[in-house]
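Tokens in:
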């Protein structure tokens, strides 16, 4: 069982998908340049005024001066075809790309069809026929959501499904084994024969597919050759061509060829916003998010500019993506006016949040990724990340890594027993101090020779040297614990040789301070909370 998803007037539909504000206007899509440009397709409003495909643009403008003309946009058509394929892939894993707004998808085993291998016409009241009609209608609604006006035909062969998709009153379902009877009353043009064969059949007085199917196969083959023999088999409902599934691309692309080059940023962002909305809509249908955005610019009169924007976390927020594009182009403007562009999203699965039944709602991972992306764009990607400790003895040693929180736990962890621990709020950079000292005996055993123990210095009062230093530290020391000596990197140009103290002031503040042995200066580098 095969369904054909068909978009009539595909170049026009692709253009209106990129510019939906023109859907109620008299619009024509033309191919070629200047006065030699010929119309490929036109909207219903333009056709009612007498505009037809094949006219030159000056002829059409003579009939309808207010006709809105747009050139064929290969980037728009490619994006629309990919969107059509994604609609089909949401209903079947086996999808064939037939090009120009035509997609085939295999429906065998779909739960909406009932018993596999059996299809009944729409006119029969059986559940299987109603299932095929319901499935076709669901495909139509999905295509409409993707801004593509499509038709659907369901049959046992690709040919019958394609012809059924071209008929009005979509969706159209052809019963299994009834392909020849379905095709018989239709005109020969539905088979799209070659011009030479079409002219010969017209001289023979044949106008319907059924009239052609009644001819003897051998005589048709001897007079029309192998192409005529294949066309005759098609007229009898025989279509041996199998469905050729395609591999889905690993990226999503949306683009547009501009009518005129844009030399300033704001007009480009206006048209780019619509392209990003279409891109995000496609990602959302696949339950994916953008983790890297590639921007390709076609420059006028000739040239190419490409750049890549890495996101800290997958996101589907259009405003964030547009802001990143703006900041990227402001930082490195292109060397010429932009004549066309394309956005390519590298997808990844969005992060999941653990829902809570009674507590407050957890922070959305998508919104968190959006905030991180904006911070990275404003401050620089090297300043945004998750801090990690570095192997070494200095407390201030750290590095930044990409923010990648672990998945939420499946069960609530058990509470930890024991006393709580103090946390240290590290001061970056350390605050320089003025420290008053006193000598005190070490609490150590007497030396073996019976002499007196050595003296050590102890801080008795501290205060910050800078009057506007934050946090302000000043007061007498109530308790001082230390020193803890640290020596690291003596073989480098910037060694560390320090004595650390933990001090409690009379106002209750707890601080970690140290003395640099090389210069003799004191610093506060941590506050205990």
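Residues out:
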């Amino acid at each position: 069982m095969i369904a054909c998803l068909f978009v009539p007037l595909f170049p026009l539909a692709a253009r209106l998908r990129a510019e939906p504000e023109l859907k109620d206007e008299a619009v024509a899509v033309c191919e070629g340049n200047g006065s030699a440009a010929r119309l490929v397709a036109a909207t219903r409003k333009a056709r009612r005024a007498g505009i037809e495909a094949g006219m030159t643009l000056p002829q059409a403008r003579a009939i309808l001066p207010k006709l809105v003309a747009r050139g064929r946009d290969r980037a728009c058509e490619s994006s629309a075809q990919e969107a059509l394929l994604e609609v089909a892939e949401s209903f079947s894993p086996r999808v064939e790309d037939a090009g120009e707004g035509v997609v085939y998808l295999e429906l065998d085993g779909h739960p909406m069809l009932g018993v596999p291998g059996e299809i009944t016409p729409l006119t029969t009241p059986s559940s299987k026929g109603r299932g095929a009609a319901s499935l076709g209608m669901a495909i139509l609604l999905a295509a409409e959501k993707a801004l593509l006006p499509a038709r659907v035909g369901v049959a046992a062969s690709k040919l019958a499904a394609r012809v059924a998709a071209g008929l009005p009153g979509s969706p159209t379902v052809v019963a299994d084994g009834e392909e020849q009877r379905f095709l018989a009353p239709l005109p020969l043009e539905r088979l799209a024969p070659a011009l030479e064969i079409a002219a010969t059949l017209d001289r023979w007085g044949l106008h319907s597919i059924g009239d052609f199917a009644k001819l003897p196969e051998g005589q048709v083959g001897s007079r029309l050759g192998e192409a005529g023999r294949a066309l005759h088999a098609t007229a009898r409902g025989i279509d041996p061509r199998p469905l050729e599934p395609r591999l889905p691309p690993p990226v999503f692309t949306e683009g547009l060829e501009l009518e005129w080059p844009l030399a300033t940023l704001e007009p480009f962002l206006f048209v780019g916003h619509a392209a990003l909305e279409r891109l995000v809509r496609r990602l959302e249908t696949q339950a994916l998010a953008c983790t890297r955005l590639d921007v390709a610019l076609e420059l006028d009169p000739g040239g190419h500019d490409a750049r890549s924007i890495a996101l800290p976390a997958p996101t589907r927020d259009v405003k964030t993506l547009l802001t990143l594009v703006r900041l990227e182009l402001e930082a490195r403007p292109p060397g010429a006016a932009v004549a066309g562009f394309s956005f390519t999203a590298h997808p990844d699965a969005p992060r999941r949040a653990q829902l809570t039944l009674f507590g407050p709602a957890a922070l959305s991972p998508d919104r968190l990724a959006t905030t991180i992306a904006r911070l990275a764009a404003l401050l620089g990607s090297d300043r945004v990340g998750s801090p990690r400790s570095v192997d070494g003895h200095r407390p201030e040693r750290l590095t930044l890594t990409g923010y990648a929180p672990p998945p939420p736990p499946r069960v609530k962890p058990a509470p930890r027993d024991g006393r709580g621990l103090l946390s240290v709020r590290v001061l970056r950079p350390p605050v320089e101090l003025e420290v008053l000292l006193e000598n005190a005996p070490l609490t150590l055993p007497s030396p073996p020779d019976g002499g007196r123990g050595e003296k050590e210095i102890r801080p008795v009062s501290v205060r910050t040297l800078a009057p506007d230093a934050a946090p302000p530290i000043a007061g007498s020391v109530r308790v001082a614990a230390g020193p803890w000596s640290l020596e690291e990197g003596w073989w480098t140009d910037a060694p560390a040789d320090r004595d650390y103290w933990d001090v409690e002031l009379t106002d209750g503040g707890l601080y970690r301070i140290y003395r640099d042995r090389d210069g003799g200066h004191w610093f506060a580098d941590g506050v205990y909370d």
